[in-house]
Write a structure and sequence with these properties.
By secondary structure, the chain is mainly alpha-helical. Helix content is 52%, strand content 7%. The chain is built from 6 helices and 2 strands; from the N terminus they run H-H-H-H-E-E-H-H. Helix 2 packs across helix 3, helix 2 crosses helix 4 and helix 2 crosses helix 5. The relative contact order is 0.27.
Amino acid sequence: MQAIARIVPVLPVSLVATVFLHNRDAGLSELELKSGAYDLILRLEKAGAHIYVPRADHDYAIGVGLRMLLLRRIVTEQDGLYRASAGEDALLAYYANAIEPLVAAAGGSPAVEPVFRAA
């Protein structure tokens, strides 16, 4: 697994897709999404994964991943909450599966269930 981690970088779209995949029914605020993604980044780095961070800015990287999913209509935003679009689970899983072996090596499914919810 370490050989794969050295070769396959974790891209922002896959990172954000993984957070949404493990929170399918939840609406996430931008802060909750970024918190979950950053937690996942830390766990993946600890497991030896290479995270691609454009502009050396984690906030920007997570924003890029979210923007790509929004542009492709895989994720929607309503009233400040982001959700996986209905009927797009297979495509969301496709992006998340790119890093699934790395997520598994980092301890399984990400514990990104938010502690609080935006009102």
